[in-house]
Design a protein that fits this description.
single chain, alpha+beta, Thiol Ester Dehydrase, Chain A, five-stranded antiparallel beta sheet
């Protein structure tokens, strides 16, 4: 039996804050995220190529950022939530050695449909905003 409980629209209100989560940005996370999303651009897994662009090390690709944003929202919502949409804007790069802190807030709740909008921000401890955007989830209604 799972310990995870999925939130229902009745559990959620506009203005609810999601607990922040700190993510260590490691070389493994950057490289494996790029390879898992079939992004073979050398700047995501070859330090010399990344340095040639002016960055100190390999940097995270957008698909890894999207995955982290989605996971942050669904870890909060629970396993039965359905991701309806993701809107993501990138800012400063994430490179190994940084820590990105994810934070979020509920900005919309449609009790009729169960759709919830969550504003998400991911900031690294060196250059600030790495990503911001919205995740829209459909939460199951209570039986």
């Amino acid at each position: 039996m799972s310990e995870y409980k999925t939130r229902s629209p009745e559990d959620v209100s506009v203005g609810d804050k999601l607990d922040p989560v700190a993510i260590d940005i490691t070389t493994g996370l950057v490289v494996c995220g790029a390879l898992a999303t079939r992004d073979f651009e050398p700047v995501h897994h070859d330090k010399a190529e990344a340095q040639a662009t002016g960055l100190p090390d390999v940097f995270m690709n957008i698909l890894t950022s999207q995955g982290l944003m989605t996971r942050f929202a669904t870890d909060w919502s629970g396993p039965e939530a359905v991701v309806k949409s993701i809107d993501l804007q990138l800012g400063a790069p994430n490179v190994p050695g940084m820590v990105m802190t994810m934070s979020g807030e509920v900005t919309g709740v449609d009790s009729e449909s169960g759709v919830v909008d969550i504003k998400v921000l991911g900031e690294n401890n060196i250059w600030g905003m790495h990503m911001q955007g919205t995740v829209q989830l459909a939460l199951p209604k209570e039986a």
